[in-house]
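SAMPLE LOG
Freezer: B-3
Tube label: C17
Construct: single chain, 337 aa
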Amino acid sequence: MNPVERLVRAVDRAQQRRTALAVGVGVVKKYGDDRGGLLAALITYYAFVSLVPLLLLLSTALGFVLHGHPDAQKAVVDSALADFPIIGDQLRQNVHTVQGSGLALAVGIAGLLYGALGIAQVLQHTMAEVWNVPGVKRPGYWPRLARSLALFAVLGTGLVAATAAAGLIATTLAGTAARIGALLLSALLNTALCLACFRILTPRQVIARALLPGCAIAGPLYTLLQSFGAVLVAHQLRHATEVYGFFATVIGLLSWLYLVAQVTVYAAETNVVLTRRLWPRSLVQPPLTDSDEQVLESLARQEERRPEQHIDIDFDDPADPDDAAGDGSPGPRGSPS
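STRUCTURE (predicted):
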């Protein structure tokens, strides 16, 4: 054993003996086992696709509202929206002529429906992948569609509740107390909203209590990301030049969405690791820990696609000389099948 491997194995033994470190390593390894980065990228794509038609809908609705209302036009020109890249320049230059379009409204609604249903389906797929649900046990299209509609209803209710709570704090408190109260309330609401969404998206065989730890972590992180996004728009993007602002907006938005998606996937992975006690995990193999074998077994069974298909998993013992020789004879724990 060379000095580098000796050091790595010493670190591995140390993290396996400490519960907090072992759980953290277990979450990170489970994220890698489930290809969490790809799942987060897929969530980001559909989130971005759904935002573009949403912006089209907002601009169309704004055209209907502003047309023939000079006071409303002046209020928009004087607002922070007029300083936003691309959109702001168009509003300042064409605010008196902007008007809604029925075609743009129809295209925006169709695009928003496609993107919103897409991200709801991807989130359900992500939860099924994270919990390693076999393909044969996953719900069909219509149950997934019903869950998607329930998800939209919960998100809409949460948005209304968050807006009302923010308005209540703004009218009852002022200064630093208002900002701190708003952040704390936002963290609580985001945690509750995350728990409700996870309950809708996660397979029914998972009990609701198992979803709480990840949501308790994700809720405050969502609040921090929301605050960071607001600061970015207010102090960086709103005064950017037209070309630079366009690229900065797109790159910043994609990066922000990817961070939100990663928080979501890591929160789900945390729930799985804590519920199934998937720690300690080994950094260097062999040997595999019991948690390593449990994860590998779940990944293999996840590939069952038909009721008549059954996957049996076994593991060789690396200490058995027959297994090490690779002669195909089963050791004490059998051989892979």
